[in-house]
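To close the chapter, one final illustration. This time we ask the reader to focus less on the individual chains and more on the assembly as a whole: which components sit near each other, and how the overall shape emerges from the parts.
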Amino acid sequence: MSLFPPIEHKRSGWQLFLMTVIGRSYPRVVGMQRERSWMFFDVFLPLLSVAAYVFVYRAIGAPEDYVGFVVVGGAMTAFWMNVLWSMSSQLYWEKEQGNLALYIISPAPMMAILLGMAVGGLFATLLRAIAIIAVGSLIFEVTYAVSSFWQLIAVFSLSMIALYGLGMMTASIFLLLSREAWHLANLAMEPVYLVSGMYFPVKNMGFWAAAAASVIPLTLGLDAMRQLVFASGPSLGFLSVETEIIVLILLSVVFVTAARFLLAYIERLAVREGRLTENRR
Amino acid sequence: MSLTPAVKTENLGRIYKIRNNRKEKQRELVALTDVNLEIHEGELFGLLGPNGAGKTTLIKILTTLLSPTSGKAWVAGFDVTRHPAEVRKRINMVSGGETSGYGLLTVRENLWMFAQFYGIPSQEANRRIKMLAEIVGIADRLNTKSSDLSTGLRQKMNIIRGFLTDPQVLFLDEPTLGLDVGASRDVRSFIRRWMDENPHRTLLLTTHYMVEAEELCDRVAIINQGRVLACDTPARLKQNLRHEVFFQVWVAAPRLLDEYPFLQIAGIKHFHQFPEEDSLRLEITLEEESVLSEVIGELTAQNARISRLEKREPTLEDVFVQLVGQRMEEVENVAVPAD
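The assembled structure is written out below.
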């Protein structure tokens, strides 16, 4: 009997694409939950900054819905952190670890690898975001008044597609920037907290500033979600939920398409310049 | 057997443009020059050379990770630059000292994940992982997190990853780098079994261990400073040295010997000395055996007492010395890394 029998039916086409997405999402869906420390670092620590804003709002006598705004904003922060540190800079880390070369030489499409990273990251972060909302709502006694579940699901889904599309797009750019990527990710973290209105209604920044900030999918996603889950949400909203949904659809298409083309371009460039393997080899 | 070579290169070259910082002017580093190779289906082909010789650069080009700056290369009949997707369906690669995979996943999970990227259904992947793990002797570690593995066990996992997908052409880049003697032997015997089982499989192995190349390879190309200096079977390469005589001499000497008087002896081709625990080992190549008496005379003159003397068969290391004029480790000590 043969010790190494040939493989009769290797999958290709869409089946290979799907298998790759599942395969690459696995380390995040399963592996990331194994380190129990995530409960402290990814749930408890974000709740500290949420608490700071809650106490400020309560001290100045802001409407009670602002507390809910902050809790939802705190949960959405987790997604931004994930996109920044586990999507944008991920291809660079994969390169340094030696995985990127193995992805490239496999028949798996690189878009499927990126999508797998995004799906896995989204799932892992969703657990953290749910935990932040559940614990935050319980501690600060947040009351929700959801006006439309369907719109809420649509807004959340579109925000995630656009946000992770942005992450997929920047992943290629960061790959080319190598070590600089770390500094860029650091640079992008705090300003986005401000302009996306994580802890306050973005409308307060004024129309043009809020419009410019809308290029970050979190801004409109968060604004629309607040309008849909809090009684005072619509009065504090930047644009109507319908308009924000349309813009989110546009952002999703632009970012995912750009990610695809950029990835192909960067791969060609990296092959030409020899940047696909880790620096130490 | 297919008439199409499994791997073919034509005048293949690669120049890296290097600049350490933005202010510095860009300089060129020639990693490969005019490499012409033809590896046949079913062959276990060795690429032998010191660190920095260009072996890894060649592998990177053949595995579609790097484009050549001149010449062409084909793998399984497909141009690596024009049809990388076709090449990727048919190859796999394992490098020595690799840290691929994810530490949070177990060995089984890591291997399963990589199998997915090759479209191998889960059931088939798991069956093969189990079987290969038993062959390489890590079946009891399949549920261990890969971050908890020793270097040797980790490399065995990498080896399984490479063979798991049943590639038509497999590239092994220094697969036994950093492994202990036992683990290296296991890996070599595994490679040989895999090749012996199916005549359609082709394997390109890069190594700077002469013994590995000699033990495993059907043919060997010796590469140095980006150029292929010789390419043939190990036996034929060594046959070129049949007119020379090789001696190993162990002497008790208080310090390193003065090499100059030895090199002045007519008929002595190479003289190298290596300090060992309590003696000096001399590697001496002579044009004819009769010169040995003069060498012994000089040893006596330098108060070096012979404790052992052996006449030995030529090795690939001797072939390398003949081609390059230096031993491989001497080249490594001065080489600018091109790999």
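Residues 14 and 69 of chain B are 5 Å apart (CA to CA). The domain at 245-313 of chain B is CATH 3.30.70.100 (Alpha-Beta Plaits). With these observations in hand, you are ready for the problems at the end of the chapter.
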